[in-house]
Amino acid sequence: MADPALRILIADDHPMFRAALRYALGEIAPNAHIVEVASQSALEAAIGSGEAFDLAMLDLMMPGAMGFSSLVYARGERPELPVVIISSNEHPRTIRRAQQFGASGFVPKSAPAAVLAEAVGAVLAGKVWFPPQQAERDEGDAQLADRLAQLTPQQMRVLLRLADGLLNKQIAYELSLAENTVKIHVTAILRKLGCHSRTQAAVLVKGLALEDEGGELHDGAGGLA
């Protein structure tokens, strides 16, 4: 892991945690080039830049993200890029869902540096690494993952804005697209997802929301869980 060409993307909206993670990674891979982002839009820009990252370390709680949407986006845009989730939400179902939505690993934020090193080493070696406490496979999540996998990265970007309640012209402005292009994307999204309306598609995206310990859903767009 001391390869000077190793490139790691850290996505977390808390500067102090990014600094702590950078320090921990410095102990694991001292010559690694690390890029930091703090929001869903910044993550999209970094992944869309074409930079050849070897690993992405992703928090689920970022501005602009809808629970697992950032993971689904990253996997759709760069399926060859392994993603390790770093989260304070250690609920067994959260861990299982991360795996079902395509993560290569999951490290609780409470884990010691040795666990992080073990997970990063395993994932960079082409393996997966998850804590032992996981919930049973959920067929609903599996079906949702399959449906979302049909979308192109641009369609996923449009869908996330649609789920936020934005109009086509607002989505066009945010993504620097023509309004008619957005309309075409929305039509394709509804067809691929088997939805009859924008509202139905937005409800579908809500299925990516995180669950807290009490089973309540939240979108994960704030700070730490």
TrEMBL record:
InterPro entries: CheY-like_superfamily, EvgA-like, NreC/VraR/RcsB-like_REC, Sig_transdc_resp-reg_C-effctor, Sig_transdc_resp-reg_receiver, Tscrpt_reg_LuxR_C
Domain (Response regulatory) ranges: 7-124
Domain HTH luxR-type: from-to ranges: 144-209
Pfam families reported in the protein's UniProt record: GerE (PF00196), Response_reg (PF00072)
Keywords on record: DNA-binding, Phosphoprotein
Domain of life of the organism encoding this protein: Bacteria
4-aspartylphosphate modifications at: 59
CDD domains listed in its UniProt record: LuxR_C_like, REC_NarL-like
GO molecular function, one term: DNA binding
Any one GO BP annotation for this protein: regulation of DNA-templated transcription
Name of the protein described by the UniProt record: LuxR family two-component response regulator
Organism of this sequence: Lysobacter enzymogenes
